[in-house]
Amino acid sequence: MKIIECPRDAMQGLKDFIPTQTKINYLNQLLKVGFDTLDFGSFVSPKAIPQLSDTTEVLAGLELAHTRTKLLAIIANVRGAEQAAQHPEIAYLGFPLSVSETFQQRNTNKSIAEAMQELAQIQEICQKSNKTLVTYISMGFGNPYNNPWNAETVIRFVEQLDKLGIKIISLSDTIGVSNEENISYLYKNLIPAFGSIEFGAHLHTTPTTWLEKVAAAYEAGCRRFDGALRGFGGCPMAKDELVGNMPTENMVGYFEAAGIELNLDKAAFEAALAQSGAVFS
Q: Could you tell me the end-to-end alpha-carbon distance of the chain, in angstroms, rounded to an integer?
C-alpha cells in the first residue's frame, strides 16, 4: 500500500502566496510521517502556477537525510522535465495527460496528440536521468466540457502509455465525478490486463463521497492512493467548493480500520495535520 501526500496539489490554486519558509517547514514535517511519496512542487511556468515559483528554493530546504519518503514534482513539458531531472533528490516526475481535449489545452496548451508526443520525449529524459515518470490520466472519470468520455477511451490511453514503457499511471478524478461503478470497472479491467503498470488513484471528492470511492478502488485492486491532509486543494474547474482532494486522514483511518499496516509515524502525522491548518489559513 502506497500513500502519496500531495501538498503541491493543495497549494497550487491558492491566490495568496505561502511564504517559502512556511512551505519548507510544512514539507519537512510531512517528510517525518513516512508517506511513500511527497508530491512537493512543480517545474511548470511560474506564470501558470505562481504559488510554486519557489520550488527550487523549497527543495534546497528539505531535510531528506532521515526520511524514506521519495519526492515527486509535476512538469508540463520537456523544458520542465529537463529542469526537474537536474535534481538528484527528485525520484518521480508527474505529467498530466487528459482524455479531455479541452482540458489538455487549458492545462498544458497542447492537444492530446501533441501531449502524447511530448510525453514520449519526457519518458526518454526520465530514463536517461534515472527518474520514474508518473502519468496522470486527468479527467479520467468524465469532464465538464461535454468532450467524449467512456471507460474504453481510458483503456486505449493506457495501451498507448504501455507502449512507451510507462510504469506508473494514476487515474485522476479531476472534478469529483467518479463513482463506485466506474472506479470499480476501470481498475478491475486495467490492473489484470497491464501487469507491468502500477495504477494509482487521484480522486477528488466531496465530504460525503470519499469512503465509497476509496473502498471501490481498493476492492478493485488499487494499492496506490493520492491525498492531501484535510482535503485541501482541488481543481478550479470543479466550480464547487466542496470538491477537494481526497483527505489523507480519512484514507489512513479507512485502511487502518481494515487492518492494513501503513507504517506511518502517528505522532508526526498528527503534528502535520495540526500544522496544515495554519499553512492553508
A: 31
